[in-house]
Amino acid sequence: MTQDSPPSPMVFVAETSTAIDLHLVNAEDLEAWTDMQPRRVRTWLESLGFSAKPGEVALVPDSDGGMALAAIGRGTAKERARQRFCFGGARAKLPARTYRLHHMLTPEELEEEALGWCLAGYRFRRFRQTEAPAQAMLVAPAQLDTGRIEAIAAGEALTRELINTPASHMGPQELEAAFLALATEHSATASVIAGDDLLHQNLPLIHAVGRASDRSPRLLDMRWGKSGPRLTLVGKGVCFDTGGLNLKPGASMGLMKKDMGGAATVMGLAHMIMAQGWQVQLRVLVPAVENSVSANAMRPGDILISRKGLSVEVNNTDAEGRLVLADALALADEETPDMLVCMATLTGAARVAMGPDIAPFFSTDPAMAAALMQASAQVRDPLWQLPLHPAYESMIEPGIADLDNAPSGGMAGAITAALFLNRFVEATPRFAHFDIYGHQPSAAPARPKGGAGQGARALFAALPGLLHP
């Protein structure tokens, strides 16, 4: 078994005389590009039938039997619009050599393809006995902010690694260890409130959700940066979700190691921000719990009093994520940060509406929502805004308590969950909640099956303009 620390992302290497020329070719530019090549290269490509389809690879030998150059297709404009990271998807098809990139890409296209190359280097190998196979490497492309790309890739690698690690090795204590390691890496300060101290520190909902497990619940709190706007990130850290006494069926429980995907994603985003040295006052809050079953588990029908003082009727113990987030959001809101972002694998309703690839989000600020949608399209990190529809407020009011954690009827589940969370954010002027999936159900270019970050890249692109208008 490999060591417990997350893997280093596969990043760029220095220029070398042995690097092989690697060409990225759009289908519409194929004829013009081919005409520029030597006759022997044109003949070889013709014999291969190379048509520059997305991710298609052509290896051209030299006269000595080595490799003269390689070409990777990017397809037509329509195909590129449908498929991200063609370049990264082709990385595994290349021999494990060092390559020098040739392209006719815009700066935005180059950034996307270079990031895809880095993301394609990730493999979850924590429990594999064998050494990782060698991979193709890329000389750092000119006119590319490689530090930024490497920070994004490292943040995404951290997110994937945390989500992929099974609950047997990623409970609240292990998530705390990863959280503290991230703080140490960036000279941030961190604190932990655990067990019954949660009650003493007025975090009763986090305690109620996690108290049934013999792995103590806790709130993780990190601060970094001494000046600039105040940005707080809150991530759901339910390390495994049995559903509690409203026990999930086995088929629904199989992926519940990913129920801390919100925590993993905000930690990945925090790494990107700190690695790039942003001028912000960053705070990261993660309520880390395991929703388990025992004699002291919270029960359907229980009424809990939150940190904010709002009473909550527990009509389904499987709607626990919004409970732990409620206390964390209330705590964050007490400081009135300039911006507050919440990320959580929260509702199945979001998946029914959007599928696994698109993360819906909700925002109290139109300018923030518009910037996120623009950034989503720019960096191809799919998001879609859903409304905090005021007419549905009554659906989360059960009558015998202030709030209902699981409204009956099953309609508008993602919206009612977001409305529930919004009740705990009153002072902060800009708030956004992301209902992510955190999992890639089948392999795609630069996105292996398994844990996946969603929304972090769009936030990373949008936040500078929002925080420093």
From TrEMBL:
InterPro entries given in the database record: Leucine_aapep/pepB (IPR011356), Macro_dom-like (IPR043472), Peptidase_M17_C (IPR000819), Peptidase_M17_N_1 (IPR048816)
GO cellular-component term (any): cytoplasm
Keywords, ordered alphabetically: Aminopeptidase, Hydrolase, Manganese, Protease
GO biological process, one term: proteolysis
Origin: domain of life: Bacteria
Molecular function via GO: manganese ion binding; metalloaminopeptidase activity
Positions of the Cytosol aminopeptidase domain: 316-323
PANTHER family in alphabetical order: LEUCINE AMINOPEPTIDASE-RELATED (PTHR11963), PEPTIDASE B (PTHR11963:SF20)
Family label: Belongs to the peptidase M17 family.
Name listed for the protein in its UniProt record: Leucyl aminopeptidase
